[in-house]
Amino acid sequence: MKTFEQKWTAWIDGELTGHDLAEFEASLPDPAAAEAEKHDAQKLGTFLKEHLPCRAMGNEEFFNHQLRERIASESAVPEKSSAGGDRVWWPIGRLVWVGATALAMFSAITFFVMRENPATDQSQYLSQILNARVDPVVSPNATITMFESKEDKVTILWVEGLQSLPSEFASK
Amino acid sequence: MKRRSVLLLGLWLGLTFGGVEARGAETVWSGLVIANNAAKPEPASPELTYLEETLRDWFGYNQYKVIGQSRKILVTGSEDWLAQSKYFSLHIDSKSGNDKTGYRVNLKLFQESSLLLEWEAKLSKERPIIVKGPQVGDGQLLLLLVVQ
Asked: Which of A 62-91 lie inside 8 A of B, CB atoms?
């Protein structure tokens, strides 16, 4: 059972026909005023249809782009998480490369440190006279003394009593 | 990636064995020097410049002249060479047993053909060896061994 408002709306829209139309028009208290109101409503409807059309999409491409981006980002989420899982372990090639780099750096540092650091036991790096002798027949009075001068950083073998020679022996 | 690895390996090998190579490429300077006092002493030769003060302290002369010398680059460490003047010769024989602390050398000083002095030493870069030889005229014969 339709209410009066529903029948009124249908009558203005021209949707009432036949027996319903006749019955409704008979029930109207002031048919002339109702007719005028129907005319005004139809006029307003026509006006609105003409002057307020559906707003056209100004940036269709931009909208589509935004939509595609969003779809892509949503669908890419599981892929990213799986890629992150692969990165936990490095590939063999990269491990070898990093190992070689570390080894080279270690060797370089060791080389320079070893080269710059003085010897802990200095004495073993100093020159030493292990033994010395003169011919007792040629130089019977010769004596041999060894000095290790820490101040001058020289090792000296001091031989006394060798036969003296004339100055001509000083020539080149 | 491969090229970079080869480069790094090369660098490592170079650094590792470079030290050994440098150790093997040391030069030993050996000289026969006459020390005496002169009214106008001549400047010492470049090989003696840094030792001149030490020589003066120890021997007291004001002039040091090189009368014979040799410079030997030790490659294997087992080499022999000679430094000689007109009348003297110093024969140096580097023997096996060399290590990072120095070279083990056997030395003989000859006056022409007669052996005056023989000694064995361990020669290191840290410290030269100076030998006081016979008196020659108003001066003194000195023998020097320096790892350069």
From this structure: none
